[in-house]
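Run: sequence + magnesium ion -> complex structure.
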Amino acid sequence: MPQQTKPVDILLIEDNPADVRLTIEGLREAKIANVLHAVRDGDAALDFLGRRGRYADAPRPDLILLDLNLPGLDGRSVLSIIKADPRLKVIPVVVLTSSQAEADILAAYESHANCFISKPINFAGFLKVVHSIENYWFTVVRLP
Ligand SMILES: [Mg+2]
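>> structure
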């Protein structure tokens, strides 16, 4: 396994503060050094990715964690925009949502989501999912 030299940057697009806190907590003990950047809606996410305004110095994320139901521009639109952008489409997008709807799962994969995870309802389950994401995407998978 190649030595990780710089911390991985993760962009979390999530409007629920409790889920943001749990994700931060879950990644704190990660084996891989990481920096979590959290934005609360789709417009802020696109500003971050486009390095606009207050996000002018934002890093290019190595992984995106995307909630579907967001205020304003929602996660479905954000996903389509990312995957239609030649500069952004290689960044893996993990859809992490409370939705269990088959239609959402199918639509996410049709829009080239890299995986779809339904958020567990309880804290322990949520932390387990965050640990699984960390382990899979940062130790098993080779990122672009
Ligand atoms: Mg939400």
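>> summary
The first strand starts at residue 8 and ends at 13. The pocket of magnesium ion is lined by residues 15-16, 67, 69-70 (CB under 6 Å).
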